[in-house]
Amino acid sequence: MEKKILRAGIIGSGFAAKFHYDALQRVFNTKVEIAGAYSPTPQKLADFTTARGIPAFENVEQLIAASDVIHVCTPPVTHEPLVIAALQQDKFVIVEKPFTGYFGDGTVEFNGDTFPKKQGLEHAMESVANMLNAEKNSKGKIMYAENWIYAPAVQKQKELLQKTGAQIIWMHGEQSHSGSHSPTYGQWQFSGGGSMIGKGCHPLSAALYFKQIEGKARNGKPIRPATISARTHAITRMPGFKDEGYLRTTYKDTEDFALLHIVFEDGTIADLFASELVLGGVHNWIEVNTTNHRTICNMNPNNAMQTYTPAQKHFEDVYVVEKMETKQGWSFISPDEGWFAGYQHEMDAFYRSAAYGAAIESNSSLAADVTATIYAGYVSAEKKGEEVAITIL
Predict the structure, then answer these.
(1) What distance in Å separates the CA atoms of residue 274 and residue 243, rounded to the nearest whole number?
(2) pLDDT tens per residue, range 268-304
(3) Stated pTM of the model
(4) 91 closest CA partner among 142, 47, 54, 43
(5) Cβ of 119: how many Cβ atoms within 10 Å?
(6) What's the domain count of the chain?
(7) Which helix (H) or strand (E) is 283 found in, with range?
């Protein structure tokens, strides 16, 4: 069968746009033509498009019209209007995480530390509902770009759950590192929160996904989250914090540590950590404890390849792994970081769905549950860990 041709349009010109472009080079089930890119920052757009030999668009409407699949690689504050604009033109839209959220009241006085978190929950769920309604009225679909779902380790655990009929009784996991790439990260008005949403969305997505898979395999319907107890802290903003220059410390009004305790509707639990306080590269893992097996999924780091050099100068031109402070000594060097993280598998799956109608593993329902859980978590953290019900749309 001849492969279908799909045109891709990329909104954004930063870190996420770059790895989306790279992942598109590994889409094999369809032929992808890059229609072009748009960014509100002219110089960054020119740099991004010139380096890749793709067209630069003057406005986002023209790019959407020229594309079959739109990649939203922009700060979370922009996601809702861009996703809805693409869906209104019946386009498939791949939207980066976090999906959406609450980004303040638009005033210069807004402060993420002090606003009522229930207000944030209400606004975030309204944003989710707007996006889901736009999807219902469109021929296109929302594809939630949570690469953890497509990581090979996570997909193998999916198979184990389906074939063993196991009950998941407890999960725990983490995403942490020394600070985000994004210049706007750490300002609630752009990011919609700190570590809980920016990092916690990853292991949370995997935990919610595993319970969906388990429920479908055992009872024919997904098992959803019911309540959350959470705590957040701003360690690097403490007056007594000793800054030695290794951790990012430019957070304005967001947390740099979060702990989430989730109770599912069947009474089982998950404990997840997210922080900007970890040196030595990205720490991405989730452990799944079930009634008949135990699995540890290590996305970063893993020991597929380890290398040692006595002096960093030998590796100056070598990419080792994301967020590593030094290349001297032993490193968990990744032979193919995108493969282990699920980026290429994610993109291939999304384009297979857009071209041939295959089911989407990381869909708008998962994105909605993740958003609902996190913003209920912020309400809980405001109340020093009080248990809060999770709104399921």
Answers:
(1) 20
(2) 999 999 999 999 989 999 999 999 999 999 999 888 8
(3) 0.95
(4) 142
(5) 13
(6) 2
(7) strand 283-290
